[in-house]
Task: structure prediction
Amino acid sequence: MDIRPGSDAPGVAELERAGLLEPSPDGSRLEAVDPRLVEGRLTAIWRNRAWQAELRAAEVERELEPVVRIFTTGRERPPEPVEYLHGMDRIGAYVARVSGEATEEILTAQPGSGRSAATLESALPLARDQLGRGIRMRTLYQHSVRFNEPTKAYVEAVTEAGGEVRTLDEFFERLFVIDRTVAVLPARQDRTVAVVVRDPALVGFLADVFDRNWQRAAPFVPAGATHASAEVMPAIHGMIKRLLVEGLTDSVIARRLGIAERTYHTHLAKIRRSMGAGNRLQLGYRLALEERAAAYPPAPPEPAASAPPPAA
Result:
């Protein structure tokens, strides 16, 4: 069906405005455009607009901050040393606001196997803006994120912009510390309630906990799965052994490692094979022997007595 330019057929004008119809090379008719091309073009436009809007919003906050401070001086009570936030939307908005107000440092601890690609993509422009303003950003993940492609792409972009990222085998709770003056952490296991801490002693304690974990963590340089496995697999397997000896259930161990139970059972099978255990009972026995050997290492042999010198 030929459609001439300027046709008043139903829907033609709308398709032209959407970019799904465009003139042919000779201009004699309208031709259909691959919707995938239109989708990619429109998506890029809106993502760029969203990025510009986010940056402009951060600029407005910085520009108005002195005026807000002058206006509110003497009008507001000092903030409470501890405050609770209810609801994921309110928590996210608060963290975004105080992070945007940072002037020196942002510490972030993100447990689990990685956030969604959409979440990381939306967070990247703000992170770049903060790093561009000279704010030091340190992020702590668990080892499991080294196998998550969206997180690897995000980490690569952030480190190129000057951020620092490390991973740790142990479980830790989600935590944000901004300028060592305010901290945000979950108040419930489902993370629908958060507690905001402004008490200097408590914030200092939480920042110290982060620093101690940071010192024991391994730098995260995004690499292929093979390199990631070689870097962190011994630590992951060592953590599984320790938690098994403590008597934790499989589901609890998987959660503390930040991995799915299916992935956890794959690791467990590898541990059994490496220790020559045919079943769970044998594995427990061999782990007990291994722990005992580590706790009571054999004494080093005594040096042999030197022979007396020959008689003259």
Observations:
- The two ends are 121 Å apart (CA to CA).
- The first helix runs from residue 12 to 18.
